[in-house]
Amino acid sequence: MTDTQKTALILVDVINSFFDPSQPNYYKGVEDVLEPIRRLRAAAKASGAVVVHAVERHRPGFDDFEWRKLPLHHLEQAFDAEFFGEFRPQGDNETLVLKRRFSAFFATDLALFLTEQKVERVIIVGVKTNVCIRATAQDAFANGFEPVVPREATNSNRPHLAEASLEDIDRYMGRVVSVDEAIGMLS
């Protein structure tokens, strides 16, 4: 793949659930990804690249298959499901994708949307490397997009699983790069 291909930035679950210290999914060190994500988003805005905010939201009062494995979380209009700080869609090049599973692609229109925008490569950032980032990278690859994960723009409370996921992404699906290299892809 060439460096001239059209690239989009996908922010995965940059929501209160993970980044607000009062929330049960918060973990020490998660804040380390915020500045790299800010830098990537600024580069995307400057170049006019598509920015997708993929956030998990579930319907209150209805059964959800995820409840079989995880406690209730990220219900529509609940504090934990709201965007963290300034990380909400802003401007003409930013959009929202609601997801109900780990992957931003599964049962959403993300692949269709990106195809319509002629995107070929996606830079995936946010939390957690071994769950939502990995699932999104795998489904990006399965849908014909080159997944790129900037190492400093994602992490996990399970570092050994994050490292294994990054290794698998780099070996089998796409690329793991530095934030600076990813910024270059957005410029």
TrEMBL record:
One of its GO terms (molecular function) is hydrolase activity. Keywords: Hydrolase. The keyword Hydrolase applies. It comes from the Bacteria. Residues 7-180 form the Isochorismatase-like domain. It holds the Pfam family Isochorismatase. This is Nicotinamidase-related amidase. It comes from Mesorhizobium australicum. The lineage of its organism: Bacteria, Pseudomonadati, Pseudomonadota, Alphaproteobacteria, Hyphomicrobiales.
